[in-house]
């Protein structure tokens, strides 16, 4: 029995990925392997990538680097993840690695300038976005998986790599973040079965959850209060099922001396509003455009909304890059909701 969700990945693809990893020459003169996750990495992107990195290192792959595009800044909760020492800034990525593996990357557009590395002789994609563009030679893409870490677990089990505590911590962070602490629809029996095996490997779920979900700077809490305080409810949106939206600017971050990642969890209180199916948080980027988070309770396919605006994601959780004022971005989203009712 395998531990990955069946169906999304063919046995041919699993075998090709196993062969690509088993074919690597280990050691200091061995093959270079570059691991990449998506821009603005979240818990699934980092946890999946570092968990697999640790497994490769245990197999003797020492010419091994992990990276992500853009500023080399990790959200504070992820700075202590096992394997974080394998992370290098984008400019220090290998130039011509033998193998490239991507984690939680739905499309080339999420790779920034690292897209050039897709010229490597072998590219293996591990992901769970239904919108994945299958840009590798080998595509381990399972839209039924709750997190990319479920796909990583499937590959590790086929490689015969046991889950030690360090790997398990990475995969648990990935699984817990992408399932919203085991609350979302994707929280299947397989998710809990994987969580059970990860906990059995010796991790402390209470400590991890406290660090990842329940610890924030005082300024981040004050900032959240302001951003939530300016939320707008539009009951007419989404064919009358409602939309609630808010925004946060770079000036808000500066006033509270906070880093952008603290805005990423603000979608959670906003999406809890009973009167709205759709929640939208519009976050200003350092470049002056807007990183937009979309969530639906089930009435709207927000991934279709995001894709039509150049972004992507899942049916009930998606995002895109917006332009104009926050009001204009909200109006653009509202204009697309009624056409994308499920
Ligand atoms: P977020 O709102 O940032 O938590 O993202 C929700 C989902 O949408 C995740 O699966 C992301 O991978 C996806 N997503 C967010 N922003 C973008 C974007 N600009 N392009 C493609 N996918 C995105
Ligand atoms: Mn992600
Ligand atoms: Mn993910």
TrEMBL record:
InterPro entries: DDH_dom (IPR001667), DHH_sf (IPR038763), DHHA1_dom (IPR003156), Oligoribo/pAp-PDE_c-di-AMP_PDE (IPR051319). Residues 35-174 form the DDH domain. Residues 260-331 form the DHHA1 domain. Pfam families: DHH (PF01368), DHHA1 (PF02272). One of its GO terms (molecular function) is nucleic acid binding. This is Phosphoesterase.
């Amino acid at each position: 029995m395998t531990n990955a969700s069946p169906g999304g990945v063919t046995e041919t693809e699993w075998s090709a990925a196993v062969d690509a990893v088993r074919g690597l020459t280990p050691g200091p003169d061995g093959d270079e392997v570059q691991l990449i996750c998506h821009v603005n990495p979240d818990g699934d992107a980092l946890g999946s990538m570092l968990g697999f990195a640790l497994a490769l290192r245990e197999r003797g792959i020492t010419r091994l680097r992990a990276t992500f595009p853009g500023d080399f800044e990790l959200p504070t909760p992820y700075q202590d993840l096992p394997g974080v020492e394998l992370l290098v800034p984008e400019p220090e990525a290998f130039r011509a690695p033998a193998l490239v593996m991507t984690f939680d990357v739905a499309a080339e557009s999420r790779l920034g300038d690292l897209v050039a590395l897709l010229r490597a002789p072998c590219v293996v994609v591990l992901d769970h976005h239904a919108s994945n563009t299958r840009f590798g030679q080998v595509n381990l893409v399972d839209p039924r998986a709750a997190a990319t870490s479920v796909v990583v677990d499937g590959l590790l089990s086929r490689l015969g790599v046991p889950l030690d505590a360090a790997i398990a911590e990475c995969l648990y962070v990935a699984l817990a973040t992408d399932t919203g602490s085991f609350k979302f629809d994707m929280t299947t029996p397989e998710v809990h079965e994987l969580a059970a095996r990860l906990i059995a490997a010796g991790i402390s779920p209470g400590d991890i959850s406290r660090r990842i979900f329940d610890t924030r700077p005082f300024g981040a809490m004050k900032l959240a209060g302001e951003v939530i305080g300016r939320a707008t409810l539009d009951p007419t949106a989404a064919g009358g099922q409602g939309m609630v939206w808010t925004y946060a600017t770079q000036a808000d971050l500066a006033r509270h001396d906070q880093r952008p990642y603290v805005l990423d969890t603000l979608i959670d209180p906003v999406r809890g509003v009973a009167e709205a199916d759709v929640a939208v948080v519009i976050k200003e980027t350092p470049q002056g455009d807007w990183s937009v988070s979309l969530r639906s309770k089930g009435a709207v396919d927000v991934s279709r909304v995001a894709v039509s605006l150049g972004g992507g994601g899942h049916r009930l959780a998606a995002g895109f890059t917006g332009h104009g004022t926050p009001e204009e971005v909200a109006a653009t989203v509202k204009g697309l909701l009624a056409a994308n009712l499920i």
